[in-house]
What does this fold into?
Amino acid sequence: MDSVFKKTDKDIQSIRCSHFLHHLYSEVLNRTAVEILVRILDKSDVFVFSGVIRDYFVDRRKQHRDLDLVLEHNINWLPIYRSYRKQINVKINSYGGFKVRIGELNVDVWTMERTWGLMKKGVKITPRNLIRTAFFNFSAITYSIRHQRFYAHSSFIDFLNNPEIGIVYKENPNIPLCILNSMHYGNILKMPLSMELKKWILTHYSMFDDYRTPQMRHWGKAIYNQKEIRAFISQCERGV
It folds into this structure.
């Protein structure tokens, strides 16, 4: 995949890419999800985040059953819900968003103004500021479906050139999950953690924190036990 971006801001670069939209429609979304997305796009731009984009750039092919979307504007969901209520299941997720199950696909949806990082920083609500609040470097990128354009933080470009899992925005409301995800992504991506991320983990880790509940909420099961988590922490200690 061509990773040459056009510079548009000091730390944000962009590239127009229609191929990713084709990938999204043909390999990630099911028919009902595409129909709902088209209706949303009549009211608001939609930004794609997280693993779908990361895996696209590192050429990691897998069946995605989870998708994170951020809407530029709030919309009236009632007409969409009425049209598809027999085909979807909707729950409230963290920070006022929705978790929508469409067949086998789980979609987390927020409006941009309700994302935790932007509310915490109190900055202008823009896609560029949104990716500046990503925790991981491989998450510091978004895709505008309406404009068929990627916006990538410089840390994401560095990640493509030097495959190492790093940290961008160090504040987060769910520290145990960030530690668990650091271990998890290091395992599945077969990539080392940056020195900065390891130091963050060691600073924020507490053996008294609850590491089971975040796993149940995030993965639906506890995939790591206390012994494995402690072994991960020891590995971080040896690496700094």
About this structure: The CA atoms of residues 215 and 224 lie 8 Å apart. Strands lie at 6-7, 12-16, 46-49, 66-71, 88-92, 98-102, 105-111, 141-144, 149-153. The first strand starts at residue 6 and ends at 7. Confidence is low (pLDDT under 50) at residues 1-8.
